[in-house]
């Protein structure tokens, strides 16, 4: 049985604040006035703010019914409510912006508007498709999705169809349409909603804002109800959400915000870190606390994350706020393995290598549920699904079928609810055993089935319910009964707060925000995917860097970063590793370190700064190595380059090291284009240092000598 804070001796401060570090304790004990918590990844921000709420309630400063904690996902809100319940403050409201606004709208609509609240539109796609047809536009699923995203951005930016056009400059061509057409679709969509008497999720916020602005009585009632506010993930607040928060506050300053500008990854949805970065200017007397002690990741993972942000050329959103520069995390965990960097020949090969590495981790005792494969786009998941299935490794696709929508889960909850009365009358067995007995009729056994497929997936769902019952019984104490567990499942079902399923997680980097695993594989880290090809401005590229930062900081101990040089087996190896890996990979980091050391060795000539073909500036170290930009055609013979690649592959396999450890693709390209005929000429190329010259020089010259070099006019 786990003891609650009222079951231990000592002062209230000891009971509530005793387990916090110095900075967390400052957050939890600062109960009044504006408070800004700059919290890095893995620094225990949720712990700090939930203990702050608990300390405020137990000390009498806060009334639990008059404090509203706002998060950005239903899952995060459910997690916060669970932690607050464990701290003895179950009556605090922890909701998303939309859930809090919808609750207020449902209550005030009859008196402020009159009649019945319109129905809530779950998805925009069908209605946007109909609006497009009315305008005789040709659309497909992808264009409808893009139009929906653009309309959502416009609405959270508080734009209307009338003023969208003048404020949407630079937004490109959403769904492949010009902005004038998008504004017409926007208007047609709004007209359709009015005709059908429905509202969407953005309308919930907009109408609530309108009522609070126009009806002083409603505004006064809300402000009387809520005296204190906490906002998590404040860097992701949209202009519309900030306006609603301002109306809730009504000029008061009892506000605690928590965020990290370096984790701003939703700008495309209208989120802006400016509210976080301008907090000190808006509230000059605000207390600012920085949480930088990283309890999640090993020093090796933390260093990589810090170095990634330290290498950025553009300042990013935090550059303009001198009081809030990017947080440099300080690792608190023991040392762990170095992050791995893997270059693979193609996407299929990359997936196979990752699956093999996962099997090694599973054999070493790492749970499948503690392993994740993270990618930039959902379309990348198929190769990894196939590789894991071929290896007999279970997985779950985050963003696929929701846990509580699965048939076996719904059946289990029905049976658990039906058994509540009978179990209450018997009242002898532990909760975990009771749940095991009940779900055994649905196919649960104490050991997993050896087969895969649907049988294994069904067992994993039921096993997740059993594990959750054990976990909650341990944390809530002996009085926690089956009825409490069924109620908890119902609440989690509404919030989509699923328990852990025993399977490797496949997820996009965006979907991974707020989660963590023992082992993380960041895959597909090549130019065009990371950063994504349509990131065509410094601001967009910087957000892509922050997205990779979020991916790195999901890992507790094991971290692998991989990319492939070709899309398909046998395809041309024209992909380059992400520019973000420059200076992070061992050979690029080593080169930087070598430049800083004092040596008596003759300094090489500086790599060219402009392309020798077109004259444009070279942006990356890889381009400078070959003296040519990526857009210009290579100057080597395919036969020569392929011979060098085959030699490198054989050399890497015999030494049991990744291919890039022998020579990077950029160096190999430079060798193929220069075709040096002596060790002296080879040593003059960027990427060929003394040790590599000594180890591989003669072999490289032999490869070059063994390939034909076409004479002038001869077809290569």
Low-confidence stretches: 314-323, 590-608, 710-716
State the separation between the terminal residues, measured CA to CA: 76 Å
Estimate the mean pLDDT confidence: 84
Helix content: 40-55%
Number of strands: 16
Using the alpha-carbon principal axes, give the shape: globular
Secondary structure category: alpha/beta
Radius of gyration: 29 Å
Q: Please describe the biggest sheet, giving its number of strands, its sense, and whether it closes into a barrel.
A: 6 strands, parallel
Please report which band the strand proportion falls in: under 5%, 5-15%, 15-25%, 25-35%, 35-45% or over 45%.
5-15%
Strand order of the largest sheet: 3-2-6-7-1-8
So how many helices?
Answer: 30
List the helices and strands and how they pair.
Layout: H1 12-17, H2 22-29, E1 35-39, H3 45-58, E2 67-71, H4 74-86, E3 93-96, H5 97-112, E4 119-120, H6 125-134, H7 141-156, H8 164-167, H9 179-196, E5 198-199, H10 201-214, H11 216-225, E6 228-231, H12 239-249, E7 255-259, H13 274-277, H14 279-282, E8 287-291, E9 293-294, H15 299-310, E10 330-331, E11 340-344, H16 347-363, E12 371-375, H17 381-390, E13 395-397, H18 407-418, H19 420-426, H20 431-439, H21 453-476, H22 482-495, E14 504-508, E15 517-522, H23 538-552, E16 555-564, H24 586-596, H25 621-626, H26 638-655, H27 659-662, H28 665-674, H29 679-683, H30 690-705
Parallel strand pairs: 1-7, 1-8, 2-3, 2-6, 4-5, 6-7, 9-10, 11-16, 12-14, 12-15, 13-14, 15-16
Helix pairs in contact: 2-3, 4-22, 5-10, 6-9, 10-11, 10-12, 15-23, 16-17, 20-21, 26-28
